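Q: What structure does this chain adopt?
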Amino acid sequence: MGRYDFRPARVQQAAAQLLHTERIAAPPPWYDVVKSIPPPQILVRTQPVQHTGHRKGVRKPSKLFQPQKVTYPEDQLRRTFFTDHPWELARPRVLLEDSGADWRGQEWSSIRRRGGHISGENVVQRQVWLMEQKNLTKDEAYEQARREFYEERLREDVERRVAKEEATSTGAYFGKTMIGIGNDLEDQQFDKFRAWAEKTVTEQEQSRSASSPSRSAVNTDSVVGGTEAFPDPEQVPASPEGALDQTEN
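A:
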């Protein structure tokens, strides 16, 4: 059939011929659907709209029909902020919206937005507002937005700490702190290590005592020749001359 295979497009015609020659008893379940909605006859894929100028020899043929990459000015600003503050990505965020268009009507003359906690997105939108409204450079707007972000985050931490102290003074209990939980985990691991060390030392001592040969009782009389082998302290000469005198006598 050459380069293109037209058999999938003619599947309804093939099924009709099989029914006409009685090679199949009943039509397939998809027969009426394909008959009413036949496959398209256009087999050439149209090229998508190019957002950038096309230069010959630059685009590979395998990527000719891929969609263009959509970029926004805020993408580079987000990348810069989260590169400097990677732990901001670990903070939980509430993605619930009231109407689906909460971004409309947001006025970024202040870094704090209505009805939401401050996050890295506040810094990005505040930086864009400063660049467009105050004609600041990207670096100047970033420094100002970041300084306001630090101040707001510090204020939230102080409010949270004060609220916790007030609740604790009235009898509230918030459980153990992260430091207390860490200490408990460290104590558990230390207890496991101590039990393992005691068990290992006991096994080594038992193995050492089982592998050493048994010693028989030693006969003291046969080794030293009885009690007569020990001289009387009064008979021991005090000097070599005394020993010589005893020999001559």
